[in-house]
Amino acid sequence: MAYVRKNAAALTANEKRRFVNALLEVKRRGEYDAFVRTHIDYYTADGEKGLRAAHMAPSFLPWHRRFLLELERALRRVDSSVTVPYWDWTRDRSATSAPWTKDLLGGNGRKSDRQVTTGPFAYAAGHWTLKEGITDGKYLTRDLGRAAAPIQLPTRSELQWALDDPAYDVSPWDSTVTRGFRNKLE
């Protein structure tokens, strides 16, 4: 069966609700935490030993494609109408744009501790306690744009610059190179 992924900004209220409900159910079943564990297990930074598959390697795009397809399958087992929406940050990169709304993923974290306090995944809502992660915190944190050390999402022209690179990836196949589509994209 063919289905279409939609821009998060174009989702209807019903589509947002169905996506959120499916994601909450996948979390309740423990499947979401398994996805988090998998992503942590396959992330290996430059200089670290271990299998490098998820990031800073030629397998970055195919690995994440498969990862998202598996997440989408889990969501669709709950609700067959649900797909993973995408965010086109080249059109709206603000911290209040979709998907960062209270009816979808919730807003940015508060300044004091970066805790997400709005939306269905806020700790206070009682549906999203972190069991797997890179910190000991039990709540979801978010620091869009990294206020303390600002970083910007790529612009449309910077994205085109990456797309125009004729090489997919180049040696030494990590984050230290300045050429190659994969490294520029990542």
Tell me the series of helices and strands, N- to C-terminal. Answer: HHHHH
Oligomeric assembly: single chain
* Corresponding CATH superfamily: Di-copper center containing domain from catechol oxidase
Basic shape? globular
Count of individual beta strands: 0
What is the mean pLDDT?
90
Bin the helical content.
25-40%
Please summarize the sheet with the most strands. Answer: none
Question: Could you name the CATH class?
Answer: Mainly Alpha
| CA radius of gyration | 17 Å
Counting DSSP H or I runs of 4 or more residues, the number of helices is 5
Uncertain ranges: none
Would you tell me the structural class of the helices and strands? mainly alpha
How much strand content do the residues show? under 5%
| Structural domains: how many | 1
CATH architecture: Orthogonal Bundle
CATH topology: di-copper center containing domain from catechol oxidase
N→C terminal distance: 31 Å
In short:
By secondary structure, the protein is mainly α.
Describe the structure.
- There is one protein chain.
- The protein is mainly α and 186 residues long.
- The protein has one domain: di-copper center containing domain from catechol oxidase (Orthogonal Bundle).
- The protein contains five helices and no strands.
- It has helices at 13-28, 31-41, 60-78, 156-163, 181-185.
- Helix 1 (13-28) packs across helix 3 (60-78).
- The longest helix has 19 residues, at 60-78.
- The model has no long low-confidence stretch (mean pLDDT 90).
Topology:
Elements: H1 13-28, H2 31-41, H3 60-78, H4 156-163, H5 181-185
Helix pairs in contact: 1-3
